Chemotaxis protein CheW
Amino acid sequence: MPREYLSFRLGAEEYGIDILRVQEIRSYEAPTRIANAPRFVKGVVNLRGVIVPIIDLRLKLDCSTAQYNEFTVVIVLTVLDRVIGVVVDSVSDVLEIGPDEVKPAPALASSIDAGHILGMGCLKQGDTERMLILTDIQALLTSPEMGLFDAPPPLLA
């Protein structure tokens, strides 16, 4: 059964995330900085009474020079009942991708952990082929190195 993905750019690469995680897309506005936060945590914004952390995926994944311009947007996501904003270079469109159009990701050294990649979405559009890195945004944002969620309790032997 096909699934819908929001496509967005980080540098020269095109990514896709499950549209069901997306709450809204907003233009970038400078957030309130948080002291001693990692470089990729830009700060927080007040979104209709909810304090939302803003993560610059471009900085986290070393994908771009992270310039802020009229195309820079924040994708507001819901992950494990928390609202988180991620800064990307631009959003493109919503694409329907069937299981037969998803290929396994190659095992390469990459700025994004292979465990956070669902596969490569390969779409034919006329004579051209479009390829997206389909990202498990929940796995990425809940990973320990992001520091957004408490670490799970250790398993008892």
About this structure: The first strand starts at residue 3 and ends at 10. The first helix runs from residue 57 to 60. The domain at 3-143 is CATH 2.40.50.180 (OB fold (Dihydrolipoamide Acetyltransferase, E2P)). Helices lie at 57-60, 137-141.
